[in-house]
Amino acid sequence: MKEKITALKAAFPHTIPVLTGFTFLGAAYGILMSSKGYGVGWTVLFSLIAFAGSGQYMAITFLTSVFNPLYALLMTLMINARHIFYGISLLDRYKDTGRLKPYLIFGLCDETFSIVCSTEPPKGVNKNWFYFFITLLDHSYWVLGSAIGGMLGSIVSFNTKGLDFVLTALFVVIFIGQWKTQKDHKPAIIGVLCSVICLIIFGQSNFIIPSMITILTALTIFQKGHKEENKLSKESLQ
């Protein structure tokens, strides 16, 4: 038990920025859910079992329109496809996490990924529990924010016009954050160019899925080429 408490104390300071961000983003999500007729219980349950952030904002549209399962599946897959690359990057860190691994996989989000990749557990702190509590705390913040928003939305009437723009703002913040933290900006440039080209070709209403497919294809090709370049560079040095 002492080992877990020590890991929790070590993990918490690293998650304070996420607490601030997720409280407001989660609250906006809860208010939007409330405005569409979904109570606090549904909002909290969705945040507990889905925990998809941008995917949950997108799901509000699916919940309030004619449901198209195939479109919902493709959109969710494409929007969250970046988690495939996150997972590959964390194979070594999560290799020996044992029974904690399923939750670490489930609770992985952009913010948790950034903290886990940039932070090493302090000396004497169990790394598995350290990563677990970072994931759990971030997940809890999102659920907390959703609950606050759901309660506010049920008590006070809000004009939610423009509030759904928070999803766009979320993507912009993620993009800027990744741009600042990564030295290689080629993937970001590829993403922007593919999106613009697909917007021109397919139009505003239909460009998202084609652009995501194009981005994934382009990044896969880029990644293969990058690996081959590194391999050739190492061979030439030898």
Can you describe this structure?
This protein has helices at 2-35, 40-49, 54-63, 69-79, 82-89, 101-106, 110-118, 127-155, 165-181, 186-202, 208-237. Helix 2 (40-49) packs antiparallel against helix 8 (127-155), helix 7 (110-118) runs antiparallel to helix 8 (127-155) and helix 10 (186-202) packs antiparallel against helix 11 (208-237). The mean pLDDT is 83. By secondary structure, it is mainly alpha-helical. It has a domain at 2-69 and 80-162. It has eleven helices and no strands.
Q: Helices, strands, pairings?
A:
Blueprint: H1 2-35, H2 40-49, H3 54-63, H4 69-79, H5 82-89, H6 101-106, H7 110-118, H8 127-155, H9 165-181, H10 186-202, H11 208-237
Keywords:
mainly alpha, 11 helices, 238 residues, globular, single chain
Termini separation (Å)?
Answer: 50 Å
- The secondary-structure element order is HHHHHHHHHHH
Extract low-pLDDT stretches: none
Structural class call reads mainly alpha
Helix count, per DSSP?
A: 11
Concise structural overview:
The chain is mainly alpha-helical. It has helices spanning 2-35, 40-49, 54-63, 69-79, 82-89, 101-106, 110-118, 127-155, 165-181, 186-202, 208-237.
